[in-house]
């Protein structure tokens, strides 16, 4: 070719290139705006496009993609700078040396209706699916056959997220030795340089006609902190640091909703802090290997996931997530579960902090874990608050694939759960509402089977040094040790069944500090079946229990029965009035108490019931079913008591006095009254010097109607010194009058009443009956004395003499013996004997007798006769006094003569009661 021809062609090419470059800005603006509007469905603006011919740089200034409302801006940047090599256009190639985005901004808004770019994604998808499997129409000028890009630089960045504005001032650059676009194929081979020695290798391709894509990402020890400024701002974190290494392969097809990722990744020294510099999450090492993650179909196959040195602050994390997130409509209504298969999950030496407890030294291994049907092996060990080892081992079962949240209810578990040396003080932080503080150690060994909504378990429980103390009261309960073997079955998380045996040792209980209420060597309970409707217990046994009943501190009268304020009901009456239909049926086959003891303690009084034996058979809360009670034991000293009764209920669960049918017998022997002097002297005018009580009683109760027969015998009773209390009560006199010749007091006190009468109290009826006896005795003492001694009141009231005789007949002399018995047996009783006669009658009889002795039958002088009769009367007096002297009763006897005329000679007996 001639030189002139070559020069001409060169000039023509240069002019063509110059003409092309002149038209290039407008061409790019037109194509970019049109294409973006078609793909996004949004309005697109570019205020100005200019080209610098010296630097070959194209500038798109004030570029914007609008929101759907066409008022707000979705994406914008101040300038979009493209450095072009114009000489490549000769070969129909657009070679871009660098793209620089100056101050780009992005707006992201999440509402209950969705996210603000969802519509763009749908439009993009629709544009790719117009002719699936075929090449789409050429959208660019056929002049350009290929596009190549070398570098991308972003200067500053602003994100509008919800109500926040997030700005990043640092720049970063994609170094792309190979980024091309031609024949509908986009290819990227790049290294993302983070300018800190770390980088990310990217090898990616995308076919614009088939929407297929694929490639890989590889990076080593990528420092996270500065590179994740956007997530840090969005998540309101002050720190999100760590080193990430990854090696990923990705492939998929947009039109087919397919995106598959495989590979592995690891992270070290992860540390996440909130704005208050509180740690939410940290981890020494984490590794994951996954053959396939199907993002579009939420199907994840993970070969191995391991976390070491993991620390999660659950309380802080939940609080933080709540503060920064708003649940979407789908989240609030529930949704489908991703399909996950994890061949092996391991967590080592990790910690989970919760507001209630700290789970430490966590070692967890899960094999074949996920949402697919099958069985997963689990092995977990941890330490609760660094003190309590917990071990769980077993199998998690899934009868079908878990696809929705409701399917989680179908999870099953079979295995062993062991909790060793659990410090019960940990429970105090978990159960703040319980009004007690716990301490002690507990071991639990449980074989557990869980399926759906049912649980079956066999549990062995050990307790040591248990202590339960009231937070706001002085209540305290303790136990040296306890063992329980319990079988539990729970259906539908509602219907339960429990059986097994519980043994509790060295029990103590007190309601007031320093005042023990109960102590027991051992309590053993054997349960046949416990459900919400039925409590069947085969046996309860108590060994050496001790109950201490203390005087109430505010009690003014220790003998008063607790009263019920007017207008209020007692606890038992409230229970009776309440709805008992929901209470379970109670069946107790045997209750046995051995070696029991009850101490009654007041300020200056203590009384003991000891060696108590209790045997209850067939106890029940069901109406019209009989159960029996045998109760016996010893009293302070040598006394004994015994009670036998048969009982039944009128209505289910009605153990009130009006709801019981009782047929019982009670016996007390050799109760020493002297032991009760500290109480008696506060209410009686005299102490009790001696006296032993023997009691026999029979009671019958029928739906509240009460009938009792009580025989009280007090042997060798003697009142003691005066107490100065209740002087109006003639106790000493009453005892003296009521006791028999053997110094025994015999009282027959029948009691009748009806507990349906709110004023009826047994103790009131008994006290009233005894008071009536004392009053009657004081009103008619001689009648009471002669009755108690088996004498005739009429017989001992008069002693008769024969005329002119100072001696008594044998029968009349016996009356003196009976009177002396009264004096010997009754303290405070004296006798006044008053001699009466008809003096004239006796003088006449004497005169006639003397006449018979005389020859001349003459009368004796009156003075002589009167003197002789008075000698007889004096003899009667001396004989009476001599008799009582011989009985050592002269101090209790006085004899007087009366001038009052009586038809017969006699001695009137008058008893004087002091």
From TrEMBL:
Pfam families: DUF748. This is DUF748 domain-containing protein. Residues 565-577 have a biased composition (Basic and acidic residues). GO terms for cellular component: plasma membrane. PANTHER family: DUF748 DOMAIN-CONTAINING PROTEIN (PTHR30441). Coiled coil: none annotated. Transmembrane segments: none annotated. GO terms for biological process: regulation of protein targeting to membrane. It comes from Propionigenium maris DSM 9537. Residues 548-577 are annotated as: Disordered.
